[in-house]
Write a structure and sequence with these properties.
Order of helices and strands: HHEEEHEHEEHEEHHEEEHHHH
CATH architecture of the largest domain: Orthogonal Bundle
Number of domains: 2
Structural class: alpha+beta
Strand content: 15-25%
CATH superfamily of the largest domain: Winged helix-like DNA-binding domain superfamily/Winged helix DNA-binding domain
Distance between the termini: 53 Å
Radius of gyration: 23 Å
CATH topology of the largest domain: Arc Repressor Mutant, subunit A
Number of strands: 11
Shape: globular
Largest sheet: 6 strands, antiparallel
Length: 388
């Protein structure tokens, strides 16, 4: 199988097999660092490069993280990364890749700078040259309209430049890679939130790690977290946790999974739909949340569905993330969803209330926080949560 195009840009069937293998291995990673390292190792079998770096993005705020860069064969990049953010970003020919319109659209340095000019200027001589970098292939990776980070692959001056074929391959790999990172960061952020709740509540069983299952559009299990495997063994008594499907879940959970699947996959209003259910199983309360993770508008059918289960004490039924504002339990729930980027209609659907009810609660939230617009509110709530 080959994609049509110029002879030098063709992608062979052997390369496609490597691409699919890379996607599968990345999705099996248990955390962001493992996913990025796996991606670097596997893409090196497809696109030759000398060094690479991953720049993380804070998903809720869409602000680049000043630390936590993950590098490959760049031992001195920790200090160089700080200089890049402070001084050299403005000189980077690829800085336009950070625009939302360029998510998952790779570019190389010579798309913007003539090949015979790449060794000229302050950016190359003061920043790239000491790192042994001449040619760059970069891409901002994102999922569901939100950036999760940026990738940069490098070659030296004695190497050949990256090709259009390399750009095409990275363009195919960027969306599933971003999808894997988004899910890992989403689950990780929820786990951190639950740990904060547990600490404040002083309840040894009040909040534990999040169990998570990822389903395809036919409710087949694509993957599950370690906590999900443990939980399923407790429910079913099956020592082989892989031998289960949606029928292994209690009927109320199957119902919210069926309900979340939209009848019209082209309806963009449904793409962030979610449902929640508080259910007692084996004497333990679990807060189940089902959420559609993606839609592919070029195909029919819904994308993947994420189901999470949070273990909670019987008395702990609200998040209480912002006690200093005196929110009611419902205002707490709405505030938590706003920080995640939910629209009023999406908040209403998730909490099974009307949009007008949401607006009424928002008015009260604005009064209690003494802000007068949504942007300021989200910023205040996010900073309050981060401070805690």
């Amino acid at each position: 199988m080959r994609k049509k195009g110029k002879s030098g840009d063709l992608i062979s069937s052997n390369i496609w097999k490597k691409i699919w293998s890379l996607q599968g291995k990345t999705c099996q990673a248990q955390d962001r660092k493992e996913a990025v390292k796996t991606f670097f190792n596997e893409i090196g079998k497809i696109i030759q490069y000398k060094s690479a770096v991953y720049f993380p993005i804070d998903i809720p705020t869409q602000v680049p993280c000043p630390t936590d860069h993950i590098e490959f064969n760049l031992p001195d990049y920790a200090k160089a990364g700080e200089k890049y953010a402070r001084v050299y970003y403005a000189l980077d020919p690829l800085k336009a890749l950070s625009l939302p319109s360029n998510i998952n659209k790779p570019a190389k340095t010579t798309d913007f700078v003539p090949p015979d000019k790449i060794t000229e200027g302050e950016y190359y001589n003061d920043f790239l040259k000491p790192l042994g970098i001449a040619y760059n292939l970069g891409c901002q990776v994102g999922f569901n309209g939100r950036s999760v980070g940026a990738l940069g692959f490098h070659r030296g001056l004695n190497d050949k430049d990256f090709t259009e074929r390399d750009k095409k391959i990275l363009a195919y790999l960027a969306p599933p890679f971003a999808y894997a990172l988004y899910n890992l960061d989403f689950i990780g952020q929820m786990s951190n939130t639950l740990r904060k709740i547990k600490k404040r509540a002083g309840d040894a069983i009040g909040a534990e790690q999040v169990a998570a299952w990822l389903f395809n559009s036919d409710f087949g299990v694509i993957s599950e977290s370690v906590e999900a495997q443990k939980l399923m063994r407790q429910w079913t008594g099956d020592k082989d946790e892989k031998n289960f499907g949606i029928e292994a879940f209690p009927e109320p959970i199957r119902e919210i999974l069926r309900k979340i699947k939209p009848q019209n996959p082209m309806n963009s209003e449904k793409k962030s739909a979610s449902n929640k259910l508080l259910l007692e199983i084996n004497g333990r309360n679990y807060l189940f949340t089902a959420m559609i993770m993606t839609h592919d508008k070029r195909k029919t059918g819904v994308g993947s569905i994420l189901l999470t289960a949070e273990s909670m004490s019987k008395r702990e039924r609200t998040f209480d993330l912002y006690p200093s504002f005196g929110f009611t339990p419902r205002e707490e729930e709405i505030s938590a969803l706003l920080v995640q980027g939910f629209k009023n209609s999406e908040v209403a659907e998730q909490l099974c209330i009307s949009v007008n009810t949401v607006k009424g609660h928002l008015k009260s939230i604005f009064e209690k926080t003494r802000v007068d617009n949504r942007t300021a509110l989200i910023s205040l709530l996010f900073m309050s949560s981060r401070a805690k």
